[in-house]
Amino acid sequence: MSTAQLHWFKSSYSDSGEPGSCLEVAPTPTTIHIRDSKSTDGPQLAVTPTTWTAFVTYAAEG
């Protein structure tokens, strides 16, 4: 699947506080794609679902 075919979305928390500071994610069964919402044609990061879960857990803790 090309990145042009991905379904990108932002968290519902993106509208609070600093609306310009958002990440967008596009999950697939094998990869979570991540990009800056201000630079949608810029660099993207792709991680495994396990890595994404670990990141979200870490971020929620603190």
Strand elements, count: 3
Low-confidence stretches: none
Strand content: 15-25%
As a whole number of angstroms, the C-alpha radius of gyration is 12 Å
Let me know the average pLDDT. Answer: 85
Structure, explained:
It holds the Pfam family DUF397. This is DUF397 domain-containing protein. Residues 6-59 form the DUF397 domain. It comes from Streptomyces fodineus. It is a single chain. With 62 residues, the protein is α+β, with helices and mostly antiparallel strands. The protein has a domain at 30-61. The chain has one helix at residues 49-61, and strands spanning 23-27, 32-36, 44-47. The chain has a three-stranded antiparallel sheet. A hairpin with a 4-residue loop joins strand 1 (23-27) and strand 2 (32-36). The longest helix is centred in the last third of the chain and has 13 residues, at 49-61. It is globular, with a radius of gyration of 12 Å. The protein starts with 22 loop residues before the first strand and ends with a helix. The mean pLDDT is 85.
Summed up:
The chain has one helix at residues 49-61, and strands at residues 23-27, 32-36, 44-47.
Topology:
Layout: E1 23-27, E2 32-36, E3 44-47, H1 49-61
Antiparallel strand pairs: 1-2, 2-3
Question: Which structural traits does this protein have?
Answer:
1 helix, alpha+beta, DUF397, 21% helix, single chain, DUF397 domain-containing protein, 62 residues
